[in-house]
Structure prediction request, 230 residues.
Amino acid sequence: DQQVKQNSPSLSVQEGRISILNCDYTNSMFDYFLWYKKYPAEGPTFLISISSIKDKNEDGRFTVFLNKSAKHLSLHIVPSQPGDSAVYFCAARVRADGLTFGKGTHLIIQP
Amino acid sequence: GAVVSQHPSWVICKSGTSVKIECRSLDFQATTMFWYRQFPKQSLMLMATSNEGSKATYEQGVEKDKFLINHASLTLSTLTVTSAHPEDSSFYICSARDFEFGQGGNEQFFGPGTRLTVL
Prediction:
């Protein structure tokens, strides 16, 4: 039973355009959602997070939107840059527990 | 920022041997560390939660006798894969929680991972 789902294994976006990565979840107890960027054979790097009591959080080029009623969140990257090419993981947690990750979306930024 | 290291970064071993992986928080104290495993092109799966000075808590389906966790100090947790078999080959990643540093729910910092290959 996958509690965090990323249904798009890959996404290709032109440089300068907006990248939108989506994530769905099933566990209503999740109180924090996080996005990580990861390269092969490396640990995940934190990008941005959002509390379940908010619906938007912004940090530079990254914005995360949370729709609790739909159990859906999305990560917007604008403008997309070549260095953004990586695998992006959506993760969620309950209180201070370990993280539950989605399967990841491979973002490819094309010049 | 908070830095977490892992050692070794990769290891190849024969089937039946045991392998120890270390996870260290370099510039902060971590009362809690987490161990994850990632198979190729799969998600990171939480294996266990390691608490300093107490027994680890294992996720459902993870054999505690096979994956021994020791969190003997506030900066070090070790994962020992006992009697390793080829199906244990995976990428093992630890994270350490720093309550003082984190804001907005991000208080877990990940190590660079350890690639285990069992022949």
Remarks:
- Chain A touches chain B at residues 31-34, 36, 41-46, 49-51, 57, 89, 93, 96-104 (CB under 8 Å).
- The mean pLDDT of chain A is 95.
